[in-house]
Each structure stands twice: as structure tokens, then as C-alpha cells.
Design brief:
alpha/beta; 5-stranded antiparallel beta sheet; 15 helices
Length: about 550
């Protein structure tokens, strides 16, 4: 496919559905671990191209790609060196353009990741800033600052990194003496940009246009609440009030996204902005979703809750209430490339998720976890709004506890080796066969992370014709979600069915019920069962199971 600066035309079906994002099923592709076409052990764009029919058959509406740009991969690609290219291990810009077009031909949109808080330390801007020295215009695009104390030997602040540890690294001047410090809320290889600088804003606006011109239907915005810093560099208050944290959720960040929304709205078809927004205050969270800012944001609260009816109901109510004032749909997700996979997490005594709690050797019951993950899949797919699905969850893949010598995630190393990191949910997918690489790479090639031998039972090939498999369940659920007008965006109403049961109505004629208790429960009156995550037991819904029911339509009174 020839490269061109002429904006790619959106398929007519895409332009006819301006509200597609409110109900969409969005599949997250971690390219490095999806499919390897050339035998180097690393997934690539041509590998994704070769599996587009699988994704179309699964029933997804869009693909969200983790960063595919040139990067030293100090943080899995979230250290971007060039936003207008493709990492050589993943392919070329022409491959990306072909992938966007071929996915669109199958009715699948493309969403890409942008990482506006920081760039790679190998980015031309940062290399120029180091070379130019203190006081230079090049350094004004970042947060360079003299240190405190005698000789400037102390960091400018004591802010704590999102990856644990310090947030400042000291430079070395050309004569070998210690120089200024620079800020990085993540790793030292990810220097933070100064969003008060007009160059930074103009560059990212141009990046949006670059990819929208190539047919991208949306962008997912990494660490969306962290862009603006307090230039006075105060320490973090013990209990910061709204907008008072020096690096998080500052009021000025909203003007950035208003500008981005104006760009998105200038293109045909709805180009969406999806935020990664970690903001605990519901009203502050909703502010990012005002009609002139982002379209949607990730719902992390639901994903991190334990497998308990009261906790999940509280999260559902909280998130629906937070979105209601700005008429934005909620998003529902069970995992992603950072979070312990559901099959493993739901089989643990503590089934909640928090980065600080991750440890090696945490026991899990995979049979229990799989049963709960199946129930959670139908529960989340029945909730109002859009649905995100991380690659491999449709196969019921567990988290892999990898040998320490193969780990690459900086979260592991910056924890002093205590945290196993995130590599365990990034192990390459199994497609076919009975031995590694399970069709991920051509036979004989070793994947970049080792796959467990027991994954032979979890390949796409092993599951695709098995009505009891996780893959079969997901395919049926997504087909019903498309067919049933009650599902997707819209309202819901609770039906009280017991302390350990979540039961709610969607539309006039559909009920979803999830039993999180220890004993089977009776189903509400219904005409038929559309889908269930587990067989009934003497007509009752067993423990850790979900069913979708067709009920008699609610009479409408004139």
C-alpha cells in the first residue's frame, strides 16, 4: 500500500454510525504478543493482519493497539522515540496503513495509543536537550531543574514515581560534573514533557492529525491526568484537595483535551478520545468526559474490585452515576496489559487488584478462577456502555509466573525484585498445535516470553469447536450483544434477588443475573435462556455463574 499524506477515506458504514463508540466492543492488541509473522519471536503488524478474520469472527468492533512506535522498549513501548513511525520489530508505516484499511474492510475500526506525558530518553527532543545544556530552549520542553542543597546534590522534590522510587535523575555536564535534574514520573528512560510549552502542544496536535489522516478512528490517551505540573514544584500535600496535587488531575489539563476534541471533530466519522484517567473523585473524573473533551474513559474501579456482589454492585452504581451528569457511556473491562488476568485473579483468596499487592507465589485456584471469569465475562458484557477485551482473555489464559531471568518489566526491577511485574499477562498467544510456540511464531522459533506447556489445551484451535470453551462463550456473547438491542448503550434497572446475587433488566425483555454466592439460586421468571456461563443445576443457577434471560416484555401504558 503506497504511503500518502492524503487523508484516508472512512468507509461509508463508519460515517453512518456517529455513536458507534457508545456500545462498541473494543479488543486490545498488545502487538508484541499477538502473532509473529517473520519468526523473530516478536509479534508484528503482519501477524495481526493474518488474524483479522479471527477478530472479525469473534465479533469485535474496534482494535486498540498498544504503542507500536519506534522505542527502546524500556517500558514496553510506552517510551516513544518517534510518533510518526512503526517499531522495526513490528513492521513499517505501510504495514500499519494496510492493517487499518484491511480491518476497516471487515467493519473493524482502529484505535491507537498516545503517551503525551513523556517521551523516550532516545527521542530527538530529549537528546537535543541534553546536548544543549542548562538554560537552553531545548530544555524548556521538559522539566529540567537545579537540585537543592549544597552543590545541588538533592532532588528538586521528593515526589514518588508511579513505578516506585525517585522521580528525578541527574544529568552530567560535558565537563563531567553533575548537572541539572530532570523529571520522570515513570522510569528515567521516560522524561516528562512540559505541557506549558507551545511546542509540546503543537507537536501532539500534529501527531493526532497524522494518524487521523491515515484512517485511525480514535486514540487512547495514556496517563491522561498527569500532563500538567505545578511549576512551583511543591511537595505533595498530605491530603491534596481537588486540583491541588502538583502532578495529577490539575485543572489546566482540560484545555489540552478541548483542543484535541476540536481536532477529532474536524474529521469525518466520529474519531474518539479515550482516556486512561485514574481519578478517585467521581465529579473530577466526569469532568474529563464533558461534551467538548473526551468521549469515554477507562473504568478501573470495576476491574480492581473483588468477586463480591456488594463490591461489584457498588462499583456499577458509582460508575453509572459518575457518567450520568455528562451523558457519557461507561466502559467495562476485566483486565489489560498491566493487570493480573481474571482467571488467575478471581481464583485467589483476595480477588481484588492493586499494583502494590503483587507478589511472587500467590496461590490461586484456576478451576474456580475460570468459572468466575466466565461469569464475569457475561456480567460485564451485559452492562450499559462499551466493553473492552484484552487479548487472550477470550481464551481463558491465566497469568504466567515467569522465571525471574526472563522478566523485562521495569516495575519488577524498580520494586527491588519483590513485584513480579506485568510480563505474566503479556505472554504470547497460543493459536494452534500441541507445543510452543503454539502457532504464535513459525515452528521452531522461540517467543520473546516462554509459553507454558499446558497452554496446548487453550489454543484457538483447541477451543474453536468446543461449546464448553471460553472462546465459544465469548463468541456467543458478542453475537448476542450485537443482535439484542437492549444490550450496549442504554439504561438498566436492578432487580432485587438476594445479597449474593446481581440481577438487572436491560430494555423491555432481557435480564442478566449473576450468582456470586455459595449456593445455587432460582432464576427469575423467563421465557428462555439466551446464554449461560455454566450449566444449570436442577433448574437453578449455580454458584459463580451468569445467565442472560429472555423475559416477557414490560407492558407499555399509553
Amino acid at each position: 500500500m503506497p504511503l500518502t499524506d492524503t487523508p484516508a477515506a472512512m468507509p461509508s458504514a463508519f460515517t453512518r454510525d456517529p455513536l458507534w463508540w457508545r456500545s462498541a466492543v473494543i479488543y486490545q492488541v498488545y502487538v508484541r504478543s499477538f502473532a509473529d509473522s517473520d519468526g523473530d519471536g516478536t509479534g508484528d503488524l503482519r501477524g495481526v493482519l493474518s488474524r483479522l478474520d479471527y477478530l472479525a469472527d469473534l465479533g469485535v468492533d474496534a482494535l486498540w493497539f498498544n504503542p507500536w512506535y519506534p522505542s527502546p522498549l524500556a517500558d514496553g513501548g510506552y517510551d516513544v522515540a518517534d510518533y510518526r513511525g512503526i517499531h522495526p520489530a513490528f513492521g513499517t508505516l505501510a504495514d500499519a496503513e494496510e492493517l487499518i484499511a484491511e480491518a476497516a474492510a471487515r467493519g473493524i475500526r482502529t484505535i491507537i495509543d498516545v503517551v503525551p506525558n513523556h517521551v523516550s530518553s532516545e527521542h530527538p527532543w530529549f537528546r537535543a536537550a541534553l546536548a544543549a545544556g542548562p538554560g537552553s530552549p531545548e530544555r524548556e520542553r521538559f522539566w529540567f531543574h537545579p537540585g537543592k542543597g549544597p552543590g545541588g546534590d538533592e532532588m528538586p522534590t521528593n515526589w514518588v514515581s508511579n513505578f516506585q522510587g525517585d522521580t528525578w535523575t541527574r544529568t552530567v555536564d560535558p565537563d563531567g560534573t553533575p548537572g541539572e535534574w530532570y523529571l520522570h514520573l515513570f522510569t528515567p528512560e521516560q522524561p516528562d514533557l512540559n505541557w506549558n510549552h507551545p511546542d509540546v502542544r503543537a507537536e501532539h496536535e500534529d501527531i493526532l492529525r497524522f494518524w487521523f489522516d491515515r484512517g485511525v478512528a480514535g486514540v487512547r490517551i495514556d496517563s491522561a491526568g498527569l500532563l500538567i505540573k505545578d511549576a512551583a514544584l511543591p511537595e505533595v500535600p498530605a491530603e491534596p484537595g481537588p486540583g491541588e496535587h502538583p502532578t495529577e488531575d490539575r485543572d489546566e489539563v482540560h484545555e489540552v483535551y478541548r483542543s484535541w476534541r476540536r481536532i477529532a471533530d474536524s474529521y469525518e466519522g466520529t474519531r474518539v478520545l479515550v482516556g486512561e484517567v485514574w481519578v478517585p473523585d467521581a465529579s473530577r473524573f466526569a469532568a474529563y468526559l464533558r461534551p467538548d473533551e473526551m468521549h469515554t474513559a477507562f473504568n478501573f474501579d470495576f476491574m480492581t474490585r473483588p468477586w463480591r456482589a456488594d463490591e461489584l454492585r457498588e462499583s456499577i452504581d458509582l460508575m453509572l452515576a459518575a457518567h450520568a451528569p455528562v451523558d457519557a457511556p461507561s466502559t467495562w473491562v476485566l483486565s489489560n496489559h498491566d493487570v493480573t488476568r481474571p482467571v488467575t485473579r478471581y481464583g485467589r483468596d483476595d480477588s481484588s487488584f492493586a499494583f502494590a499487592k503483587k507478589r511472587f507465589g500467590t496461590p490461586t485456584d484456576l478451576v474456580l478462577g475460570t468459572r468466575r471469569a466466565r461469569a464475569a465475562a457475561l456480567l460485564s458484557a451485559a452492562l450499559p456502555g462499551s466493553l473492552y477485551l484484552y487479548q487472550g482473555d477470550e481464551l481463558g489464559l491465566p497469568e504466567v509466573e515467569l522465571p525471574r531471568e526472563v522478566l523485562e518489566d521495569p516495575m519488577h526491577f524498580r520494586s527491588g525484585g519483590v513485584d513480579p511485574g506485568r510480563d505474566g499477562c503479556r505472554v504470547p498467544l497460543p493459536w494452534r498445535g500441541t507445543a510452543t510456540p503454539f502457532g504464535f511464531s513459525p515452528d521452531g522459533a522461540a517467543p520473546w516470553l516462554p509459553q507454558p506447556a499446558e497452554w496446548a489445551a487453550l489454543t484457538v484451535q483447541a477451543q474453536q469447536a468446543d461449546p464448553s470453551s471460553m472462546l465459544w462463550l465469548y463468541r456467543q456473547a458478542l453475537r448476542l450483544r450485537k443482535r439484542e438491542r437492549a444490550l450496549g448503550d442504554g439504561s438498566m434497572s436492578w432487580i432485587e434477588a438476594g445479597a449474593d446475587v446481581l440481577c438487572f433488566r436491560r430494555g423491555d425483555d432481557l435480564v442478566a443475573i449473576t450468582n456470586l454466592g455459595p449456593a445455587p439460586v432460582a432464576l427469575p421468571d423467563h421465557e428462555s435462556i439466551l446464554l449461560a456461563s455454566a450449566p444449570l443445576e436442577a433448574g437453578l443457577l449455580p454458584s459463580d455463574a451468569t445467565a442472560w434471560l429472555r423475559i416477557a416484555p414490560v407492558p407499555r401504558h399509553p
